[in-house]
């Protein structure tokens, strides 16, 4: 039994992991900016009744927009590589990798 991942599996995992990691890293940067601007910690749970609406909305908008932008930037950067990501050319990349494996 071969448990070594194929090139296709590695590239698919990278295509999923890289945008996620970029999004999480962005959230950390946004947290530092939030602390510097408000002199408070960002809300751990914006949905909590103990979190004020303005803090919940501000934090959700900032992290949502920044995380989405980070994922978009990484997906666009990966679109020009052999890494498989969601997008219009994923089937073409899969076919090319399958031809390499043959």
UniProtKB/TrEMBL annotation:
Pfam families: DUF4235. This is DUF4235 domain-containing protein.
């Amino acid at each position: 039994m071969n448990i070594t991942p194929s090139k296709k599996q590695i590239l698919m995992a990278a295509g999923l992991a890289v945008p996620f990691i970029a999004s999480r890293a962005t959230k950390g940067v946004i947290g530092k900016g939030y602390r510097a601007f408000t002199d408070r910690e960002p809300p751990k749970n914006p949905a909590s009744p103990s979190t004020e609406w303005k803090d919940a909305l501000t934090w959700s908008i900032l992290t949502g927009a920044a995380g989405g932008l980070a994922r978009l930037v990484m997906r666009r950067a990966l679109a020009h590589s052999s890494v498989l990501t969601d997008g219009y050319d994923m089937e073409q990349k899969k076919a090319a990798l399958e031809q390499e494996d043959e």
